[in-house]
Amino acid sequence: MPETPRTPKRPGPDIPTVAVGDNAPDETAPDPDSPLRDPDAPTLPEVAVGEGTVDRVIQGHTYDGIREYDNPMPGWWVALFWAGIVFAPIYALGVHAFDWIDDYGDDFAESGERLEEVRALYAATGPSFKTDPGALREYAGDAEMAQAGVVHFAAICAACHGDNGEGTIGPNLTDEFWIHGADPEQLWTSISEGFPAQGMPPMSAQLGEQERAEVLAYVVSLQGTDPPNAKAPEGEPAL
User: Fold this and answer.
1) What angle (nearest 5°) sits at the alpha carbon of residue 179, between those of residues 177 and 185?
2) Which of the pair, 130 or 19, is modelled with greater confidence?
3) Are residues 159 and 230 in the same domain?
4) Distances in whole angstroms, Cα of residue 62 to Cα of each of 38, 46, 66
5) Which range of residues forms the domain containing residue 63?
6) Same domain (yes/no): 39, 61
7) What confidence tens digit (pLDDT) does each residue in 51-86 have?
8) Does the model's pTM come out above 0.85?
9) Which site in 75, 80, 200, 212 is 20 to 30 Å from 99, CA atoms measured?
10) Measured in whole angstroms, how far is the alpha carbon of residue 186 from the centre of its chain?
């Protein structure tokens, strides 16, 4: 069955020729000069109740209550639109052709350089030596730190523990028996705080953190060396 053509609305008693509150009072609705208006569809808009504007109606279409107008875009929006169009080729050429603008790789490399500068500054001005449990375990197995600790041990510790850690007044440091524990954290505490009641002063008053860590590394390196004239074991075997 052929579709019955729809008859467009035309001015009548209920459809004013001027949409009060929509078009200017001296304009015919719809706007006859709009380039978007279909001249073959003379549908007139319904009155826009409560709008109170002078918007130029194109055709009078309504989509879920949304009216169709022929108003220009805001000036700021048009300016941004054209600025984007002008900027796009400049940006593309600047990044890919002439290297005027840094790309992601350049920014990443620059950030890495700044990070290294911050690290260097922090190392020069802030605390640079760590004494957390993980760091102490690393020091305990560091041969270079152990070698550096020989000097400090000979100057401060050898009088009580012997030149080779064999023990004299103090206990033997070369066997597996320990009075106050052989864990790096326990050794660090023993070296730093000492045992004044037993005659061992705190080394924190005489040595810095790195120097004490070097002594720790040297003491650990003495394990199992079996020097001559070693003192009898004291304490409990290390686990």
Assistant:
1) 95
2) 130
3) yes
4) 15, 9, 5
5) 1-71
6) yes
7) 445 555 566 566 676 766 667 788 999 999 999 999
8) no
9) 80
10) 36
